[in-house]
Structures
1.
Amino acid sequence: MIRVAINGYGTIGKRVADAVNAQPDMEVVGVSKTKPSAEAYIAAKKGYPLYIADISKKEVFTKAEIEVAGSVGDMIDNADVVVDATPGGIGASNREMYEKAGVKAIWQGGEDHNVAGFSFNSSCNYNDAIGRQFVRVVSCNTTGLCRVIKAMDDLFGVRKVRATMVRRGSDPGEVKKGPVDAVVLNPVTIPSHHGPDVLTVIPDIDIVTLAMIVPTTFMHMHVIQMDLESGGKKEDILKAFGDHPRIGLVKGSTGIKSTAELKEYASDLGRPRADLWENCIFEDSIAVIGSEFYCFQAIHQEADVVVENVDAIRAMTEIVKDPAESIRITNSSLGFNAI
Ligand code: NAD
């Protein structure tokens, strides 16, 4: 069993912990918090040993009747891999600690590519992650872009990509963030950082991205256009997306035309936390006009990177060397039912 520690038990960390816990070849040795919170209580209820970044705060946890297993340093000493899901920027400051402990570490998309020197997506470069000590799983938007670009490039060859990200304002529980009544250009300049980030995983793609933030919490919506080298047929694209383990087709017959309906659908499917780990591509939006491909895809920001972290653990620890096999184990352990 691969022993996994999760440093930072927030939106991403708590989902990675549950996903790791569901795998047959991994176990959660601990999760960490900085102060007592609803999530700290949940960690205790789920039986995850709770460690704290600053051990001098142990008293505060004890007063809140939350048992502390030790410091983050202690947690890392018991782990083969640490998944760092601390807020963007904090993860990089933990690198020295991981280096000293000689532990493998995975960072999230809030950190720069340089934190690990290698950016990961299971569908694109799993084999290059085999045996690595440090890996960064790219952000939710970049993960969604990488999956669909790689799938289309394998099928038809992609000459260029133009994509606009309509981004959620905040995660559902983040009461302090987000525009209340505005569309915020994020950034106002073009391109946004997403295109260059895709290049850290799929080099040599001509890609320009634009982004804006809107007052919604559940998902991002991508408007994607690609120029193909050889014109694709819609039925071939539907078949390839239908067969892809991390792409889900939102069927026209469901009548779903919004992220709100998609969230309700995910909930009714019985997905934990209504999580959608796959790219949700609207079947009816797929269009091929000349050599140009178009689609809308919804990306659940809290969920799509979770399964990538699980695969990254397998690649780095070399317990599974075949990407398709790791993806299969991850998906089936989570009960990844088709949307
Ligand atoms: P979050 O704020 O929800 O959770 C971070 C957790 O880390 C919190 O529980 C906090 O208590 C804890 N923490 C803070 N400082 C710490 C420290 N020094 N040591 C240990 N724990 C500490 O953040 P998040 O949204 O889960 O984001 C985590 C990372 O994942 C970021 O890099 C972010 O960019 C990336 N990411 C977030 C999303 C998303 O939509 N939320 C999607 C993809 C990637």
2.
Amino acid sequence: MEFKVGKSVFFLEEGDLTLQETEAIVNAANSRLAGGGGVDGAIHRAGGPAIMEESRKIGGCPTGQAVITTGGNLKAKYVIHTVGPIYQGGSQGEARLLASAYHESLTLAHKKGIRSLAFPSLSTGAYGYPLEEAARIAVKTVADYLRQHPVFDRVGFVLFGNQAFQTYAQAASKELQSLRK
Ligand code: ADP
């Protein structure tokens, strides 16, 4: 599914983020950059040890911020590691921190001159963020950035499983009405 937002193509796909051929992919990392399960584990398995070596040198990343490493053996040249919030009921600044994780990832990609970028659904696995609310924030934050900064060719989401894909598709249809390509 694709939409035109500003000068960029905004895409939604169902599949495995580690197979993406965008210039960079975004990792749902933890603040110690220590690796883990979910998409983080999949990225390290597919990308090989170079990603962890660089992550160790960087040392960590606060919630809502982003750092960048090589993509190792991945098709993507870079991995942007961002840390979404752990959902604790919604009154601990989770929405702001989730938006920040998307925004800081885009800002870092922009600074690096990266032209295509794929995200997973941050915080909606182990970190427990309710999917619908997370999808709304994710789609809005990315679309706003693309409207304000016409610097990317393609930016979007690779969703794991049909439920996540459908939820993001619905959020995107609401946010991007009439822009469908
Ligand atoms: P978090 O700790 O931020 O919640 P998780 O990795 O546990 O991160 O989950 C984030 C999302 O990534 C979940 O929706 C999960 O289904 C999804 N996911 C897991 N593996 C992959 C993958 N290979 N490609 C894309 N998404 C994935």
